[in-house]
Amino acid sequence: GEKCRSFIDLAPASEKGVLWLSVVSEVLYIMLLVVGFSLMCLELFHSSSVIDGLKLNAFAAVFTVLSGLLGMVAHMMYTQVFQVTVSLGPEDWRPHSWDYGWSFCLAWGSFTCCMAASVTTLNSYTKTVIEFRHKRKIFEQGFREEQNFLDQEAIKYFRERAEEERAEAGDLRLQCLHSCSPN
């Protein structure tokens, strides 16, 4: 004597658009998670350099953040539709008592994990990029200072050498003048 009815049929007409939007958002959530996971795997197996690996990791983190946010919004929309359906739906369908249950806890757990992983990865990426830039700046400054030091040393050496050559040339002229003079 029981009728099997779809939840879509039970939801009020005003909420069906939100229900479909939540379903589409959940599908996008899963797709973004798969893209993020694929980027992490790509970074793990095909990273040619540290910087390329960090970039792939950062993109994976961005996709994971978007995924987590979209999944949470989708789950909240679905929960809203469910609450409206419980309060306005058919009498014979309404549960006498209900709880959020495992799916709600799973959604919050998923959201928390996505956000924690993404924020940690983006922080790691930012920290590493800043460290690389700082080390490169220090290296370039050291190289310039070393180059300037070498240039100054070279200039000083060549000046002294030129002065010595001029002095020797002058001595040779004096010797030549003394030895060549008819006294």
Q: Keywords, please?
A:
183 residues, mainly alpha, 4 helices, 0% strand, rod-shaped
In short:
This protein is mainly α and 183 residues long. It has four helices and no strands.
Q: What secondary-structure arrangement, pairings included, does this model have?
A:
Layout: H1 7-10, H2 16-46, H3 50-88, H4 101-180
Protein name: GSG1L protein
Subcellular location: Membrane
Pfam families: PMP22_Claudin
Which shape, going by the Cα principal axes?
rod-shaped
Portion of residues within helices: over 70%
The count of helical stretches stands at: 4
Order of helices and strands: HHHH
Radius of gyration: 38 Å
State the secondary-structure class. Answer: mainly alpha
- Beta-strand percentage? under 5%
Indicate the low-confidence ranges by residue numbers: none
Largest sheet: none
Membrane topology: Multi-pass membrane protein
Subcellular location: Membrane
Organism: Catharus fuscescens
Main location: membrane
Account of the protein in words:
The chain is mostly helical. It folds into two domains: 1-90; 104-182. It is built from four helices and no strands. Helix 3 packs antiparallel against helix 4 (101-180). The protein is rod-shaped and about 125 Å long. The mean pLDDT is 79.
